[in-house]
Amino acid sequence: MQKGVMRPGHVQIRVLDMETAVAHYRDRLGLIHTHTDSQGRNYFKGWTEIDAFSVVLREADEPGMDFMALKVLDAATLAARKQDLIDYGCQVETIPAGELDGCGERVRFDSPTGHWFELFAEKEQTGKWGVGDRNPDAWPEDLKGMKATRFDHCLLYGDDIDGTVDLLSSVLGFQLAEQVRDEEADLRVAAFLTVSMKAHDVAFVRHEEKGKFHHASFYLSSWEDVLRAADLISMHDIALDIGPTRHGLTHGQTIYFFDPSGNRNEVFSGGDYTYPDHPVVTWDASQLGKAIFYHDRQLNERFLGVVT
Q1: Nearest to 68 by CA among 138, 165, 151
Q2: With bands split at pLDDT 50, 70 and 90, how would you rate the model's confidence at 283?
Q3: Which one is catalytic: 200, 207, 214, 219?
Q4: How many CB atoms lie within 10 A of CB 128?
Q5: Would the pTM of this model clear 0.70, i.e. be above it?
Q6: Is 214 a catalytic site residue?
Q7: Which CATH superfamily is domain 5-123 in?
Q8: Does residue 72 or residue 301 have the better pLDDT?
Q9: Catalytic site residue 266?
């Protein structure tokens, strides 16, 4: 059921050393570094994104994710969903406009998996980088690194993924697009949720610890761009997790690697789409290796165990 939530808006990631982190996200991932705020946080966007930013880096003593934010239609929707979250029983906090540069009032709330999410309705719009919105060129000529087009989704690890699936579905209108189930244990192992036509806008894997960050993912234009990203990873000695390969889940073509603070990044191309009338796609837990890494058909221990 549509609740007025449009898409992922931004993610705030903790990094250990800001200088090396900025170089990674700007020069290697190829995000556009827009500015540094008065708190020392650094803001980035993919070149196709309309809003002023989609990634914020905050220097801290440990890596991970502070929160993931979702953009809603308007102020009335923001107020309505805020009350729905309060009625659901979430811890809800209002963050004033301007606390993030260029962003309006935000509604922050917790989840059963221990992750913090936010909703917002207003953010400065700076348009697609370097091409404009009238008679636009195909792409900017000064893009760097992997040329990430947009922040796409997060994969999060936590214990009560069924609780968070229920929260996001019933209150915010997310659709369960794909899942992994262990039928013998009657247990959902992983859940992929969308609030758009994408394969997923956020995903969860069952994990004994709450509030863990697995990766932030960025979309590339083609499989050739994923292969080029693999070359750049080797050229610059970036810590590789796995790939390039294909997912069974969502069918995206992918590669995983780590930023200098140990936060995992993904860049990918392709992937499925989801309409409201689509049935949930289910993978058996016994096929988890093939579901995650379709070519290798077996799991990489780093992929399962390394989270921030």
Answers
A1: 151
A2: confident
A3: 200
A4: 18
A5: yes
A6: no
A7: 2,3-Dihydroxybiphenyl 1,2-Dioxygenase, domain 1 (3.10.180.10)
A8: 72
A9: yes
